[in-house]
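Quick log. Single chain, no ligands specified.
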Amino acid sequence: MEQQRHERSTRCAIPYAHAYCMNCVSLALQPLVTQQSTSRSPVLEMQRESSGMSQLQQADDAARRQLQSEIENLVRLQPTTVVLADQVLTWYRVANPEQLLELAVNSQLPPEEVDPFWAATWRAAIGLDRFLDRIDCSGLHILELGCGSGQAGTGAAARGGQVLMTDAVPLALQVAKLNAWPWRHQIQFQTLKWKVQRLDHAPFPLIIGSDLVYDPNLFPSLEACCRQHLAQGGRLLLSEPHRHTGDRFAEWICQAGWQTVEHDVDLGDDRVPIRIFECSLSTNHRARADR
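-> predicted structure:
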């Protein structure tokens, strides 16, 4: 009888001993498991971040392709390259400008909204971009008038500026957005007709525009727009390739109350340099902008 009780006691003790030992092993291994888990967590975190970045990149690429598709439903684009802010960039231009002429002829929109000349590659925009090397654009709020395909404004954004690109032609703004895609978070796009519309925006310390003074009939509306949107003490930079209309503008803008300094930018292409009008308003003449 005593032997049977001993055997039962031994059999009962074995599971408890086994459980106790397993608990000891588990407790002994727990720091190691925790350490291994902790050592893996940065890798897992990097994988999660990489996956999130990949998804964002895919969404970003899809949005860019969608924009390009919308443009090419109207005109065919041709990729080329330009140098802006000392960077070589892929640049889209209208492959067949005659398509824009056809759109203008067949459109029911006002002429300024289908003006085809924005699609040309203007040397004045390149000259203005190079002149921006002399200006600290970092964090500066900049308004571009008549942005066209967006060269000067993109150059300003590439230098750290916060840019509002404007044009009267909606298609031009779409192409500018496509070209400026790497800096889209620094750039806004808005249609603007000089003198007819006024931006709901704080005045800008810098306004830029390339090849806008080719038509003397546009001088008054351009000047009024600049006067309305230029901040106190701000600067207006307008570029053009020394045309006779530029000479007329130089005289006209001074008579309108602006102080003007002229600069030349040599593009190194054995052609006439680009003239930059650096304009500012005196305090006495700013009052007209607020009327």
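DSSP finds eight helices and nine strands in the chain.
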